[in-house]
Amino acid sequence: MRKQINIGLFGFGCVGNGLYDVLSNSPGFKADIKKIVVKNKHKKRSLPPEKFLYHKSEILDDPDINLVVELIDNATDAFEIVKEALQKGKNVVTANKKMIAENFSELVELQQKYGCSLLYEASSCGSIPILRTLEEYYDNELLNSVSGIFNGSSNYILTKIQNENISYETALKQAQELGFAESNPKLDVEGYDAKYKLIIVAGHSFGVFIKPEQVLNLGIQNLQKQDVEYAKQNHKKIRLIAGVYKTDKKHITLFVAPRFVDKNDPLYHVDNEYNAVTVEAAFSDKQLFIGKGAGGHPTGSAVLSDISANAYDYKYEYKKRFQSHQVEYTNDIEPEIYIRYNHKNILDKLEISSVSSFGTNYILAYISLKELLNKKELINQSGSLVVFTGNFKTPYIKQPSLLHVSLTNSE
Ligand code: HSE
Fold this sequence. Notes:
By secondary structure, this protein is of the alpha/beta class. The chain is built from 16 helices and 17 strands. The protein is 34% helix and 25% strand. Strands 7, 8, 9, 10, 11, 12 and 13 form a seven-stranded mixed beta sheet that branches. Strands 3-2-1-4-5-6 form a six-stranded parallel beta sheet, with helices on both faces.
């Protein structure tokens, strides 16, 4: 039976505000925000100041509050709050992807130890209900890959640059003004945000909890006009893609990187702050989920859905983690990359296996994922842009999994 939910809400930024609106406009839903705790006493907010409290104990020590909703920015503080709430026997809903990705195993253990539930649908791909879908719908099906556009801000920026010829700086400013970007937008454009979401998705797809520092994230921060021109000349667009892929029966690999996509790829047509997730499974084949990946209301709606699930005592069971066919993480694959450089000497510093072709200030070459992970900072600091072509040298990854989900007609 549905129980009365008394919410203690931490944070009242973009998502907190969004949740407040969504909740206020969901008649019949039995959940009250009993207290709101925020950090900054002087920040101007959409509700009167008497609605806010400033110490975490106001919520954590209140026996009437049976659900903590954590929507603050700082991942370290968020972890402290979530940990204490679970230890005190309170269920928690959070949207904090960095906090989950960095403390995944410990958070699962805490839930088991204290018999509480931690739900975080809003952490990954905004309004797309991907986590519960992976947990429930694909609980027994063997997955081959889960991949797509996991960051709304960078997709918004890429759309504005490629479709409307708007500058990178203007597009980023717009993404910030629209409330899509993280307070530190580097997390968006450098692929960190997508990586945190990918780690969570991988945990629910394959039962493997990988540490963020093990996973390659390349971003779009060094994108230049000539990169966009190159893509255009080849009838492609650049998208920032996150993905976890099975490489053989025992291994999976994960990475976030810009990639060229052509018109036959549905991701070519996913614009602005929309996210898209392609799930490839052994029997159901390919399925594509599209929805708004950022913004107060879409993310607030995912939080609301978790609050509602909590009313029915829903818990993640981490089913894949406890299945017999466990897989391990590998970065032993060799993607083909386009690397555009400002100074040619960056090429001397990279261990490139083979060059496929070259132009005035770019090459197409095969390089190991391990090497890209080791030299990531060097590449980023040199101003070079790396874009995956979608080809792989190793026989492991079946290329079509990564590339062609043909839902549109080819031209
Ligand atoms: N900054 C994130 C994005 C917000 O742009 O996708 C949603 O997680």
